[in-house]
Design a protein that fits this description.
This protein is of the alpha+beta class and 170 residues long. The chain contains 3 helices and 10 strands. It has a single domain, classed as Jelly Rolls, CATH 2.60.120. The chain starts with a strand and ends with a strand. The mean pLDDT is 89.
């Protein structure tokens, strides 16, 4: 799979339910977006951080939001015939910066699996694929791709934040 973009993935009612739910969420601060061992510029930057909320990891629901997310996305993923079992589901919130900054390329895991990024807001941030293609953050857009290939995220400069849900599965 190269990548696939699906706009208006959820119905408007489902999207608004999800959007409302995620206005009340507990966040964990992550000091770096990707592994920064190789590049000092990423270690020294004031923008290379983000907030996460883990919904599901290692076969365990970890959030009160799991049922809602699983119900909204699980059957739709099954309909696409791409989904077997979740590995992880997490919500990412990237800060606004004066200009859009790209994070370091990474792979989500060091084994073969699939991913999707679901945008919760529209902004000038993006996900950059292994071939250099930048996929814009547009609310209610789902991007399906092989996250065992290098990809990266970015900040936003025209919104208070960039927020998405990252899904990994077999």
């Amino acid at each position: 799979m190269k990548y696939q973009i699906i706009d208006n993935f959820l119905s408007l009612d489902d999207f608004e339910t999800l959007e409302k739910e995620f206005k009340c969420i507990f966040w964990q601060l992550n000091q770096y977006v990707a592994d920064v061992n190789e590049k000092q510029e990423f270690k020294d930057s004031n923008w290379n951080w983000y907030l996460t909320h883990i919904i599901y990891d290692q076969n365990v629901p970890l959030s009160q939001h799991y049922s809602l997310v699983h119900n909204l996305f699980g059957s739709k993923f099954n309909d696409l015939d791409i989904f077997k079992t979740w590995i992880r589901i997490k919500v990412n919130l990237y800060p606004s910066t004066l200009e859009v900054n790209e994070h370091q390329p990474h792979t989500d895991y060091d084994y073969s699996q699939k991913s999707a990024v679901f945008s919760l807001n529209t902004c000038d941030g993006f996900t950059k694929m292994h071939d250099g293609t930048k996929i814009e953050s547009i609310k209610n857009r789902l991007v399906l791709f092989d996250s065992s290939l290098p990809h990266n995220s970015s900040t936003t400069s025209n919104s208070k934040f960039r927020m998405n849900i990252n899904f990994n599965w077999f």
